[in-house]
Amino acid sequence: MIGFRTKKWKRQAVSISRVMALTFLGLILLGALLLDLPAASRNGRSAGLLVSLFTATSATCVTGLTLADTWTQWSLFGQAVILILIEIGGLGFMSAASLAYFSLRRRISIQQQLVMAEAIGAQNMGEVVEHQKKLLIRAFCIEGAGALLLTLRFSAEYPFAKALWLGVFHAVSAFCNAGFDILGFRAPGTSLMIYQRDPIVCLTLCGLIILGSLGFLVWDEILRKRKPSGWNVYTRLVVIATAALLLTGTLLFLLLEWNNPATLGPLSLPEKLLAAFFQSTTLRTAGFAALDQGMLTQAGKASSIFLMLIGGSSGSTAGGLKTVTFVVLLMFLWNRMRGSHTVSVFHRTISENYVLNAITLFILMISMAFFGAIVICATSPFAFTDALFESVSAIGTVGLSSGGTVRMSLAAKLLIILLMYFGRVGVLTLSVGFLKKKPAGEKYRYANTDLLIG
Question: How many Cβ atoms are within 10 Å of 439's Cβ, its own excluded?
Answer without folding.
Answer: 7
